[in-house]
Protein: Galactosyltransferase C-terminal domain-containing protein
Amino acid sequence: MILFSLFTFAIFWNLLILNKESKCIQSTSSAVVHQTSINSIARQQTRIVDRFRFNRGSLINVGFQLAQNSCTYIAMHDVDLLPLNDQLSYEFPYNGPFHVSSPSLHPNYHYKTYVGGIMLISNEHFKLVNGFSNNYFGWGLEDDEFYARLMEANLKIYRPENIQTNQSNTFAHIHDRNVYKRDTAKLFNQKEVTRKRDRKTGLNTTKFNLLNIYHMSIENIEFRIFNVAIECNVDRTPWCLKQPSSSSSSSIKFKNQLQQQPQLNH
Ligand SMILES: *[C@@H]1O[C@H](CO)[C@@H](O)[C@H](O)[C@H]1NC(C)=O
Ligand SMILES: *[C@@H]1O[C@H](CO)[C@@H](O)[C@H](O)[C@H]1NC(C)=O
Structure:
């Protein structure tokens, strides 16, 4: 199999907020509308993404690699989900991964195994599960595969308790689907491959180029913005390209390999 390592020239944004208590809040987006820290809301508009499609899992892995020496745990934080209730804890997840935007509180996602949106996880546990799969270009499913990783590592997921608000007023979900369209296309054999547990890629296989670092501060909250270009092996994951390319023969080989992997167990 030929390895292509194509880097991008335009920009993925990976937004990281650091505070003094050794915690990192990290949000990722290809079209950042808002980002939040615990007590303040900052707004940031992005530029365009490159020839590869958005990859939330890889961007979280990259953010972790860049952050892990300055924090003990991370908050993976969707940029379009703003916490409205001060009762929500962002403290160190002593017991295990802490899913802040639980199915009982998230405005849209109510299935039991949902772990997307906002999750706090210690560096130790993130490394234990080898972070996220890098295979998920486009919108969706990377969090469900992450759930399978947590289960396989026997990590129990903790969620907020005794919260006085509900699905309609715990979070502001600010995402205008018409303005910021989700990239939901399933290209090549993406659909079947990404329905399966990925045991090949993760935190330790994420490769990227760090293009710029911006140090910024809004209302005394310091944060950094990293512009990174992630790598895509178009032989293994041809669906990272926006348009099907001509390398379909190698993608068929890839398909046969991955079909031997078991189903996601949920
Ligand atoms: C990455 O970690 C996994 C275990 O989570 C291991 O099986 C794999 O060999 C590692 N890959 C590399 C390239 O280090
Ligand atoms: C959520 O809480 C608000 C404020 O207490 C209340 O008005 C609303 O009816 C509740 N919604 C649901 C679905 O329970």
Summary: The two ends are 32 Å apart (CA to CA). The mean pLDDT is 73.
